[in-house]
């Protein structure tokens, strides 16, 4: 199991009232499941998938600055001291 830091950005930081949480897991999915088990009641339903076990597609999940959609998504393996970032996709000008 890798020890990783889940950094909470924008709306996640406001809803959870923390800047980061440390977790252990083998994959990105392991960490996200732990986070949602602890915090899904604090998040808006629009942020979650229908079964509430994952985030909806508008949520940006980065692993060391790389979008997990271009890696192996939730099955992406983790290493000690990896940094995950959770953000809601924002747009505007």
From TrEMBL:
InterPro entries: Beta-grasp_dom_sf, Mopterin_synth/thiamin_S_b
CDD domains associated with the record: Ubl_MoaD_like
Protein name in UniProt: Ubiquitin-like domain-containing protein
Taxonomy of the source species: unclassified sequences, metagenomes, ecological metagenomes
